[in-house]
Amino acid sequence: MSKNRSWMWAVPAASALFLAAMGSGAFAAPVGPHVGGSISIVASPHGPWADVFNPFAPGETQDDIVGDIYEPLVEWNGSTGAHKAWLAQSWAWSNSNKVLTLHLRHGVKFTNGQLFTSADVVFTLDMMKKYPAIDTSALWSYMTSVKAEGPYTVKITINKPDATFLYYLTGTYMVPASLWKNKNPVLWTDPNPVGTGPYQLKSFSPQNIILKRNPHYWQKGKPYLQTVYYPSATSNGSVILGLADGSIQWSSIYSPDLRNSFVSKDPSTNHTDVSSGGYDWLYVNLHQYPLNLLPVRRAISDAINRKALSVISESGYSTPSRLDGIDAAQSSWSTPALNKKAAAVYNPKLAESILAKAGFKRGPNGMLLTPKGKPFTVNLVTASSFTDFVSMTSQISSMLHAIGINTNITVTSVSNYSNKMEDGSFSMGVMWGASGPNPFYTLNPLMNTEYSAALGQPAPDNIERYSNPRVQQLANEYDASTSVAVHKSVIDQMANIMATQLPIIGLLNRNSPNEYSSATIAGWPTASNPYWDNSADVGPIVVLTQLYAKK
Amino acid sequence: MFLVKRASFYLLTFWAAITLNFFLPHLMPGSAVGAVMARAHGEMGPGALHALELAFGVNVHQTLLQQYGIYLSHLAHGNLGISFTYFPEPVSQVIASTLPWTLFLIGLATIISFVVGNLLGIYAAWRRGRPLASVLPIAFTVMAAMPYFWVALIFLYVFGFLTGWFPITHSIGTEVTGIFHRFGSIMYHATLPALTIVITSMGGWMVGMRNNLVSVLSEDYVILAEMKGLPEREIVANYAARNALLPAITGFAMSLGFVVGGALLTEIVFSYPGIGYALYQAVTNQDYPLMQAIFLIIVTAVLIANFLVDLLYSRLDPRVSND
Q1: Higher pLDDT, A35 or B313
Q2: Do B43 and A414 lie within an 8 Å CB cutoff?
Q3: B156 and A241 in contact by Cβ < 8 A?
Q4: In CATH, what number is assigned to the domain containing residue A128?
Q5: From the candidates B52, B154, B174, which should be mutated to test the interface with A, based on the most A CB atoms within 10 A?
Q6: Does A1 reside within a domain?
Q7: A290 and A205: one domain?
Q8: Looking at beta carbons, which pairs linking A462-467 to residues 24 or more positions away fall under 8 Å?
Q9: Which pLDDT belongs to residue A15?
Q10: Which residue of A has its CA nearest to B172?
Q11: For A309-353, what is the HEC assignment?
Q12: Is residue A224 domain-shared with residue A144, that is, in the same domain?
């Protein structure tokens, strides 16, 4: 009897609970994008912040934040090369691709209430002419003039057609003429920045930079998040702990085991993905014998197990690359024929036979002698604080040793390594390379003599000192045209040169992990909706303006 | 006379130090421009190399000697230059935002460690033979022998992350207002870093004090005092420990001088702002102005600390100034 009774009571109780659950959850409208909430971002550990918001300041100390305050003319996606019209609404080339007309967006205001107009664009660009120290993209090596035509049109003339100019020009941050006209932009720290961006500075301390929403932002209703915190961090370790305990919601730090240290803490909300950007290359000094011989470089390439480099040195984030400089994210620029030609193989036996055919013989100690009868020894240089490069270098050293090449490794400071590579005082070394919205931005600087320099002088990109007049011809063809078909054909031919001549040797597609939490914040790019690169680095405003608090 | 002699010696040392301070960093291979380029990992525009050289003024054609003259005259005017790492922030600003935290945290930890370590040392010598007095020196020697980095990470993980008792980063909470709240927040944030420094550095003071005191306790005057029937507490406090403390004073002054060098590992593990990390950044980025300024501060502090010890010693032990 008593059993029966309790059963009788249980039914209404359960249904009441059920109704309550329905009332609070299932029937409530899902919370969509709305103004409010906050996010904490640590793009990477920089140590305490400096009170510098000058968007032209060199280095990368504050560049995560400056891009939320100042905006460029066009936003470029670092991974895929896609772009969005931003402060410039549209643009057109004329006068056989020597005059660029930009049409600016109307109704954009700086956070001090002033309208953003063509005068600000002209002022910003003229300032770069006056102060070459802030012209980091060398815009004035192309430009001859910049003029305003009415408040929303800007005409820029360049000395010869250049198809990459648009990319470098439109990435420039625009500053208000009224506040900058009496400043030296090289030395101005800009502690109270005034930009057009979705966020403005709320407060600064070396340990935390706090941004607040710009209520008059030109994208109506956006951004949604009221406050953005940028706590400073000194090590990846503390960022991982912050991600795991939920005090940091977005980061782009490298950590070998994110699955365990972050995702597994709550797999339903803790996510990772990767941003791709360029290659890790094995640079070879083409002024040194026998590295200037193509069969030698081919043998070195075949002796390298890229899969091992990826797994051991980069925890599998970066993936084995092709030989032609075409990034995995930019594969639409390739062709089936090129795919075949540019595939990297790992075949040490083949490497040995290539060297044997080229006249390299085993000496008395079993190591190779060059056809001139001298021991074949290669010096590798790397930087002690880039632990992934140190690890890759030591792996490459033993892979080369396995086919009979003697190797020495020099581990030095970052700046010394960088100087040695740029000056051409190296034999071989692992380093990054240029990249941009399509493979031309990789291939051209790496192979064009325009980006080279005499040995002993710093070269910006072509540090192996490759010289091939065909590359210059192709670059001119590319620059003279705005047609995608022409660009595709140029890229295809340049990639062919890279893959067959091997001026430098592709190792890995450089991917870096991003970490984000959907516990309190929604609107992230996902695998099914990858609307933009998810890196927290360098003013991530395309994503930041989409994010909103879940309640 | 003694004072003048010492003072002129210190002036000469100071000049030698600032001269080395100028030339040593310039002997390092590499350049600030290379360091900035390398940190950006190829994400800078094609004109960046040239622009950076212009901004940092590295290609100005001046001999090292001319640069040395400029350095000295700037120094005399208190102009420390502009940091390359935090360009274009003036070096004085970088130091002003980091040095106070270092003085507070490391200074406090050094004093606590000195006082507690010596008191425990006195206890260990005075009550030697008792179980606790025998265990203490061994326990703290073991603590001192453990790698600091590891101890700090364990503390951070257990008391910061797992239990949530203490904050895991920074020296003060976000948006804390009001003087009492700020003070409370600062002390709360300093607890864990200070604790790790104290427990790993206390062992040295303790063992030093204990060993000194043990030998002093067997001196004739101590035995005489015991025979006269003075209370044991008075013998230890007024006669034995006072004498045993003399060598420790030198060490203490030296370590106070080195406080301004910061504690890099503490700052890295606890993301605590301080001058140690600034120095590390300066060295890895070939940031001569910042490096030179921090070395200058360290040299000055160590010399002043030494000078004070000299003065103190001539008081404590008049034989020193008679030479």
Answers
A1: A35
A2: no
A3: yes
A4: 3.90.76.10
A5: B174
A6: no
A7: no
A8: A463/A283, A463/A421, A463/A422, A463/A424, A463/A431, A464/A283, A464/A284, A464/A285, A464/A286, A464/A503, A464/A504, A465/A285, A465/A286, A465/A287, A465/A424, A466/A286, A466/A501, A466/A503, A466/A504
A9: 46
A10: A207
A11: HHHHHHCCCCEECCCCCCCHHHHHHCCHHHHHHCCCCCCHHHHHH
A12: no
- Comparing A17 with A441, the larger pLDDT belongs to A441
- Which of A51, A234, A451 is closest, CB to CB, to B271? A234
For chain B, the average pLDDT equals 86
Tell me which DSSP letter residue A375 carries.
B
| Residue A10's pLDDT band (cuts 50, 70, 90) | very low
For B27, the closest chain A residue by CA position comes to A416
Q: Residues 6 or more apart from A304 whose CB is under 8 A from it? A: A282, A344, A346, A396, A399, A505, A507
Q: Are B112 and B123 in contact (CB under 8 A)?
A: no
Is residue A481 domain-resident? yes
Ranges for all domains in chain B classified under CATH 1.10.3720.10: 98-321
What 8-state DSSP symbol labels residue A117? -
List for chain B the helix, strand, coil content (%; round to 5): 75, 0, 20
Contacts with B270 from chain A: Cβ below 8 Å: 238
Instruction: Determine whether the interchain pair A138/B51 forms a contact, defined as Cβ–Cβ distance below 8 Å.
Output: yes
* pLDDT digits 0-9 by tens, A89-113: 999 999 888 999 999 999 999 999 9
User: Does A137 lie at the interface with B, CB-CB under 8 angstroms?
Assistant: yes
In this structure, the answer to whether residues A384 and A456 fall within a common structural domain is yes
**Within-domain flag for A58:** no
- Candidates B307, B110, B103, B301; CA nearest to B204 is B110
Domain boundaries B98-321, corresponding CATH code: 1.10.3720.10
Mean pLDDT of chain A: 90
Partnered with residue A397 across adjacent β-strands are none
pLDDT band at A254 (very low <50, low <70, confident <90, very high): confident
Whether residue A285 sits in one domain with residue A256: no
The alpha carbon of residue A119 is apart from the nearest alpha carbon of chain B, in Å, by 24
What's the pLDDT at A22?
43
The shortest CB-CB distance from B46 to any of A188, A433, A451 is to A451
* Integer Cα distance of A540 and B41 in angstroms: 18
Q: Does residue B259 surpass a pLDDT of 60? A: yes
Is the same domain home to A424 and A374?
Answer: yes
User: Are the Cβ atoms of A434 and B46 closer than 8 angstroms?
Assistant: yes
Q: What is the pLDDT of residue A24?
A: 44
A401 and A486 co-located in one domain: yes
Partners of A204 in the β-ladder: A209
- Which of B41, B87, B170 lies closest to A231 in CB terms? B170
What is residue A2's predicted lDDT score, i.e. its pLDDT? Answer: 40
- Same domain? For A291 and A410 the reply is yes
Separation in Å, CA of A237 to nearest CA in chain B: 8
The residue segments making up the domain with residue A107 are: 71-180
pLDDT-derived band at B38, boundaries 50, 70, 90: confident
Tell me if residue A88 falls in helix, strand or coil: strand
Work out the percent of chain A whose per-residue pLDDT is above 70.
94
Residue of A nearest to B56 (CA): A133
Give me the residue label for tokens 């010696």.
B9
Pick the residue with more confidence: B179 or A539?
B179
Mean pLDDT for A208-227 is 95
State whether A48 and B41 contact (CB < 8 Å). Answer: no
| pLDDT for res B59 | 63
So what's the pLDDT on residue B320? 66
pLDDT of residue A26: 43
Q: Do B174 and A229 touch (CB under 8 A)?
A: yes
Looking at residue A233, which CATH number applies to its domain?
3.40.190.10
For residue A203, the cross-strand partners are A210
Question: Could you give the number of structural domains in chain A?
Answer: 3
Q: What is the pLDDT of residues A303-354, one digit of tens each?
A: 999 999 999 999 999 999 999 999 888 888 999 999 999 999 999 999 999 9
- A401 within a domain of the structure (yes/no): yes
